[in-house]
User: Which sequence fits this backbone?
C-alpha cells in the first residue's frame, strides 16, 4: 500500500528503496550524504572545539571513538558503547574507574594510558569499582585517541544538496 501510494505521487522503485533501507545495513556509519556533500569523515587524536566545550559543560571526558566510553570527572561511566573495547571488557554505565595502572583516576591519566598503549606501551589497566566490589580490567586497545571530524574533500564540489541520480529517490529524505 505504501509503495503504491508513493508511486502515485512519483514513479520510482520504492519497494527496492524501502527494502534496502529497512531490511539491511552496510558496514560503518551511513556516510553517503556526507560524501555526496563534498566531505569525508576522519579521526584525529585531539577533540574538536565542540567536543572540548561539550566536555567542559557536561564535566565529562568523551572517549567514545577509542575505548567507547564517556566518564564523569570522578571516573564514573556515564556511557559505554555497544561492541566497544570497554563493552567487550565487561564495563557498564554506573561503574567507576578508581585507578589507572595503579595511579588514581584523572581524565589526563586515562587519555595518557590510551596514548601510551597506541605507542606500543602496555595495555590499559583499570581498577573499577562496582557497588562495593573492585576488580582489575585490562583493555588491550591500541588505536589511540580518536575524535571525529568532517574534512572537505577538495576533489568533489561542496553541495548543500546532492544531485539526483538513478540510485537516489526523487527528493531529499
Assistant:
Amino acid at each position: 500500500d505504501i509503495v503504491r501510494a508513493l508511486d502515485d505521487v512519483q514513479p520510482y522503485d520504492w519497494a527496492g528503496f524501502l527494502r534496502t533501507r529497512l531490511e539491511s545495513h552496510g558496514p560503518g556509519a551511513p556516510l553517503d550524504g556526507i560524501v555526496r556533500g563534498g566531505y569525508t569523515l576522519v579521526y584525529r587524536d585531539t577533540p574538536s572545539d565542540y567536543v572540548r566545550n561539550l566536555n567542559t559543560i557536561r564535566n565529562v571526558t568523551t572517549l567514545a571513538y577509542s575505548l567507547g566510553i564517556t566518564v564523569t570527572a570522578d571516573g564514573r561511566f556515564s556511557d559505554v558503547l555497544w561492541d566497544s573495547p570497554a563493552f567487550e571488557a565487561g564495563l557498564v554505565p554506573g561503574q567507576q574507574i578508581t585507578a589507572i595502572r595503579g595511579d588514581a583516576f584523572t581524565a589526563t591519566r586515562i587519555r595518557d594510558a590510551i596514548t601510551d598503549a597506541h605507542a606500543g606501551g602496555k595495555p590499559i589497566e583499570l581498577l573499577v569499582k562496582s557497588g562495593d566490589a573492585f576488580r582489575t580490567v585490562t583493555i588491550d586497545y591500541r588505536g589511540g585517541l580518536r575524535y571525529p571530524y568532517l574534512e572537505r574533500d577538495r576533489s568533489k564540489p561542496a553541495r548543500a544538496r546532492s544531485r539526483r541520480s538513478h540510485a537516489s529517490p526523487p527528493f531529499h529524505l
Summary: The beta strands are 39-44, 60-63, 69-72, 77-80, 96-100, 103-104, 124-130, 133-139, 147-152. The chain is about 30% helix and 25% strand.
